[in-house]
């Protein structure tokens, strides 16, 4: 792996975990010039092929051996916890002795609370708990962020600049992080699920797969952009499409028969409660 040193360890952002979310954020940081490639380091558990690919694509620093990884962690200005919740316990246990006390911990792990992170890594450690989404990959992410009280205004704006580089940011109290996960963290998956169904129905009705896909994509893009650009309420935009006794009304009646609103609301709340469960599982493992 790369022997290139980080340009300045005091400004380094180290991604502890080099999966899809870590890549999305690193890519956005570089593309928006919020950080230089040589300020970003990434490593994973064992996939050296992936690290080579990340190095080649983005020019970031990577490390395959434990010693270099530990050095990166202990020197980083910002450590981004970017592993799956099931791997967080072991990863945090390894990190605990390496923490220097003045580093910012940024977690993107669903469910993992600020008090849990601080109780393991240091009570006074500044922590930003975040929940991004996969649209960060193309700079259209939506990220929720909660800060511990130790985060200084400077670190706060540094964290905001990281996530603003990949989309919009909403700063929220930590108590709202689970419901935000249900809305925007998991949210893209519900939209894709609906798009899969629209495409399937279009094909059943005789459209080619390409036509069904293109029409569905443009429909969702157009609907989201309409809401954003006009600032109108979705209910009003919906009503404007729904002619009395027309085809849209007939379609919405079918959705109502299947209790569409209840289904979506229950899904959002279930994502939130599952996020809480995953956090509790990490806590139990580390207790
Ligand atoms: N995928 C999504 O839509 C979102 C994911 N998240 C959160 O982001 C986190 C990561 O998710 P993904 O990027 O999708 O996962 P992923 O599976 O693509 O990546 C996880 C990475 O962590 C590494 N890893 C695991 N244990 C490690 C260890 N002990 N030492 C070093 N590296 C280790 C893996 O090797 C891998 O590179 C999760 O905690 C998830 O809750 C947050 C928002 C959205
Ligand atoms: O499904 C998950 O657990 C993660 C958190 C939000 C999106 N993906």
From TrEMBL:
Residues 174-278 form the Pyrroline-5-carboxylate reductase dimerisation domain. NADP(+) binds at residues 82-85. It is an enzyme of class 1 (oxidoreductase). It is found in: Cytoplasm. Its EC number is 1.5.1.2. GO terms for cellular component: cytoplasm. Keywords: Amino-acid biosynthesis, Cytoplasm, NADP, Oxidoreductase, Proline biosynthesis. Pathway: Amino-acid biosynthesis; L-proline biosynthesis; L-proline from L-glutamate 5-semialdehyde: step 1/1. One of its GO terms (biological process) is L-proline biosynthetic process. Catalyzes the reduction of 1-pyrroline-5-carboxylate (PCA) to L-proline. This is Pyrroline-5-carboxylate reductase. It comes from Paenibacillus yonginensis.
